[in-house]
Amino acid sequence: MALMIPPVKLKWLEHLNSSWITEDSESIATREGVSVLYSKLLANKEAVLLPQQVLCLKGPQLPDFERESLSSDEQEHYLDALLSSQLALAKMVCSDSPFAAALRKRVLVLQRIFYALSNKYHDKGKVKQQQHSPENNSGSADLHSVSERPRSSTDALIEMGVRTGLSLLFALLRQSWMMPPPPSPGGGPGGNINLCNDVIHTAIDVVSSLPPLSLANESKIPPMGLDCLAQVTTFLKGVTMPNSGADILGRRLASELLLGLASQRGSLRYLLEWIEMALAASAVVSTMEQNKVLQNQEGLIGYDCFMNILMQMRRSLGSSADRSQWREPTRTSDGLCSLYEASLCLFEEVCRMASDYSRTCVSPDSIQTGEAPVVSETCEVYVWGSNSSHQLVEGTQEKILQPKLAASFADAQTIEAGQYCTFVISSDGSVRACGKGSYGRLGLGDSNNQSTLKKLTFEPHRAIKKVSSSKGSDGHTLAFTTEGEVFSWGDGDYGKLGHGNSSTQKYPKLIQGPLQGKVVVCVSAGYRHSAAVSEDGELYTWGEGDFGRLGHGDSNSRNIPTLVKDISNVGEVSCGSSHTIALSKDGRTVWSFGGGDNGKLGHGDTNRVYKPKVVETLQGMFIRKVCAGSQSSLALTSTGQVYAWGCGACLGCGSSEATALRPKLIEELATTRVVDISIGDSHCLALSHDNEVYAWGNNSMGQCGQGNSTGPITKPKKVVGLDGVAIQQISAGTSHSLAWTALPRDRQVVAWHRPYCVDLEESTFSHLRSFLERYCDGINSEIPPLPFPSSREHHNFLKLCLRLLSNHLALALAGGVATSILGRQARPLRNLLFRLMDSSVPDEIQEAVIETLSVGATMLLPPLRERMELLHSLLPQGPDRWESLSKGQRMQLDIILTSLQDHTHVASLLGYSSPADGPEVLSSGPGFTASPDGTYSTTAGHPDTHLAEILMKTLLRNLGFYTDQAFGELEKNSDKLQQGTSSSDSSQPAHLHQLLCSLQKQLLAYCHINSVTESSSSVALLHKHLQLLLPHATDIFSRSATLIKESSWNGSIQEKLQDVIYVSAAGSMLCQIINSLLLLPVSVARPLLSHLLDLLPPLDRLNRLLPAASPLEDQELQWPLHGTSDFAEPASGMSLPQPALSWVWLVDLERTVALLVGRCLGGMLQGAPTSLEEQDTAYWLKTPLFSNGLEMDIPQLDTCISSLLEAALSGNEEQKPFDCTLRPDLSVLVDLALGSSKEPANSLWINMQDYAISKDWDNASLSNESLLDTVSRFVLAALLKHTGLIGQACGEGRYQPSKSLAEVYRSVYKVRNRLLACKNMDFIQTRSSSRERRISDNQDSLDMDPQEHSFTRTIDEEAELEERADREREEGHQEQDDEEEDREHEVMTAGKIFQCFLSAREVARSRDRERASSSTGLGSSSVSRSGGGGGGGGGEEDAILSQEGRRGSTGLTGPGPVHSSL
Fold it and tell me: What mean pLDDT is predicted for residues 833-850?
């Protein structure tokens, strides 16, 4: 018989976690869905099938019953063997039926998904917080440190002079403008005014003579200079307004100077301030126009001045726009233009530049092929380093020691510096090359050196996207096209060209084989090997295999691209001299393999690694780029920090001899936000966010651009001579370097600042918000707000504001910048945008608002807690509330639900990870970083799940509304034969459903992986959730059954019902939960048993009405006869007809619920394991006297006993021994022990005494023995408690107690009489020390003293007489009873009881004297004999007895029970 699923060995592969997280775990509900996921497990070899156990059909060897006579024991043995073999056979067959096979697949798949979720999103203390640079713009950290330097007295004097000089100048200028001009003969303006305007003119001339962006790097300007700039701009802003007192020319000159300063400072903030000023001044001019008080030439600016500044900005950045599209202000006859037009023109230009930049920074995946590339007007390329083979296309072959502008490279889009050669890709995808040509590495058809750039030909013709050329060995080159095909050329040793041979290839040749049909997104040429990454995350390597650099687990070379099987989801690769580094698509994982000498693999050792191995140090960071050099490696994080490992000056740590076996932060660049890195053979380049280039490493050919070629540069240093050049890309060759200004098409790290158009800081968002708030008022009125002449211009301005805002939000997201960049602007911006959504704005504006919201949703969202509260207030509390939500509210709800679906947020919502993961969170996609909030801290290992509980309850309720609505529709239309879809269809439940499913999945994953106990807050949350969900599901199944019954003639109802149930909470969601509960300890599911039992009947009723149940049952029963060997085949059975097939999942759900119920019940039948106390007192619990078991739930037992003892010794009836209220039966026993006169306690005591007198047990004449009575009362109370006879004792007559009650009375009197005997012995012993020795020598003897027997004989004899008749009836048990009686006598010696009694009395006395706590007395009392009179304590006697019992003595009252009885 073939089994369906053979046993499997599980081995989860870490790198596949990401792909498992994205799988829809709810698809396990159907057998087809789970089969797909299970086959993925098999395909990835995460589940390996083991050899199948052979099923032993041969039963146990039985004897020949006819010939042999067997004893009853042997018969039992054979019966057991037969039963066991039958059970094993049944288990084997049943556990491999189609349902069992599907169930096993489900459980395995869920385990895999839970492992992936837990591993990736739940904190285990292993993920390091990546330190990130302070969020400053353009070196404000440096600025801060500059201002902190101690100032000398000279500095102070200079500052004083400058400040006072400025103040004086401003005062003089104001005064000159205010004074009436003296009459001049020509009737022209007065001399004073000319003086003011001359001063401003001079300033304008100075500013315009400066090179572009001279004031851009504020870290280089001393604080005093910044202070002066601030004062000057404030003064000039005041002057520009028409009512400032300045004349028209003064106002015009002031606005020109302001613009000149703003463009030199190069920051978007200053340009926005100028636009704000220009609009405000224009508005005043418009008002004056309306009031007819306008002077001529008011509100104008010099046309040439403005256009010069605009052209300078365009030249600096290379704008993408066509000249015909450039908007220019209208020039008046006297060479002026309107301030309003100039401001709009400038704003459009800034927005266009920001859009261009933004398009280059989105992830490369989102750039569609064929999209018009962003082309710079001009590209400036700077070259430096070795020119030995004309690789820098300079006439001389001398090395170039500092950057030199190279005109011949001008139209470059991308450049690759190789081994003494350079490749230039133009914007049209053509490639040109120059430099060393040996082995055909240039691809020009020969091996000659090339002193000028020459174009390569590609057959077939293709546009090339990227080139990678080796930095060492004999030189080979790879290139991939815009379609993702790969060409290679150059030296072919080791098969590194991938053409299946080792031939040199002098023209580019297309690589066929395994890469055919693959879309390649990254290539890298190492020294002797090559690598490529495909769009679907596969890594291929080929060439020299020594040291394991190809990652295939061996040292063999490969001459065609070969898939590296051990990793997936790869995004980028870099090949070094003998090692390879790969980076995952999401930036969370870096692998390295190959030669480990000098620690260049980063694993903490120098071993070779033959298969990809994760670089542990970089776990928990978001890595943007990796580079492999000859003996070192680099990684760039999303926060712009650089890590290096390996050896030599490339580590940038200040020594050229240093070695780092693990990635180490380059401290010198820690405060610089690096956006790109490149590594040559032994030198490195880095590009900062403010366009500065740093270099370090080998500088023998001047490749570090320091103006000299002395020894190695051991710490990153700025390359000289590039100040003011907006460098955008860099490339390091073997010994030469290039930097150029063309925008990259796939920038990995976003610059926070780009001259004129991008500033990721709060001030930008603040300006844009104030623009929107100010100019959105009256958006629908006929007359637009001033200064806009028409609604069209007004709306256009608002669209530009929204576009710039949208670009900045997109850049902040792409750059992984924390939400704190918005500062206090997030909430007002969010409210403003949603308000715009709700107001009736023109469609074009509404579209812009929607786009801005969808782009920046995650940035604008409030912290997690606030979001939860917002969600709670927005989610409808009743079924009719959806319609009442406004458009803005719906969108807000949509955005919040979408944002919460991110697994990172779900994990922090449940308290399984800290919500503030640093800015990294955002870089992997739409994400959001909450500010650290105490609410999410996990106290004492229990996450705070309150928020999640509220959210899950609300989501479930909302899903319930939908299901109700759908049922309502079905019930209404059940009498109609119509196929129309339900009107309640809406996209909303998808969000709700996904979020709830995500919460459940992470909750179950946490419970499964962390083996939680019942006390865990996660289990409590799961219980609360399921206590709502299971009754809801029960209700759904009941309604479904009723509906089908009532409309059984309508076939279409079943089909519609299937759709409704499957997406409801009782559908695939419930299937996932029920299957997951099988993975958790039984104790977690058991509290849900009643709900599960309620769920089964309606589910069963529904399945009976549906077509799938009976064919499936037949299939299960017939299965052993027609077993199939194909374990992976969907077990639903292809023979089922379609209507039945779609309901198979529901039958499976019923069976799984039944299995879960069975597990819960099975566990309950076994009972809980025995406690320590029960194990200690096992002997006593078997006796009839302690048949009532142990009292386990009294808190602070010792304290209770002590207070009881004090009450007993005080003799005060009113004293309350316990603070807490006792159960009625317990309070009766306490009253009895304390000798209370209350009923029924008093009657119990009198009943026993009367019974004793009737039996003539108490014949001793006693005087003043109240202590003995107290002991007797305690013993009686304890025994009544432990035998559970209190109810019987209260109800029985005085003289006819039951047999067990009489036994209790007899035991009390045994103790009583033996204590009396001990007292008499004490009296005798004071006279005879020899007697004392004899007693202590024979403590265990029964024949201790004839007098002792005289007290106890009558009781024992009477007991014997009473029981003899019973014993005769119970034949066969006599010996056993005698043995027990003997054992009782044997262990219960008078000496030991007496010792306990005396010790207890001594302790009671010392307690009275010291008034110390009872527990101390009990704990430290030693059991020794000591003389003394009365005043002992019965309660303590019990307690001591209990302690003695634990040490080996076993008095009647037993060890544990006495202690716990009262």
Answer: 85
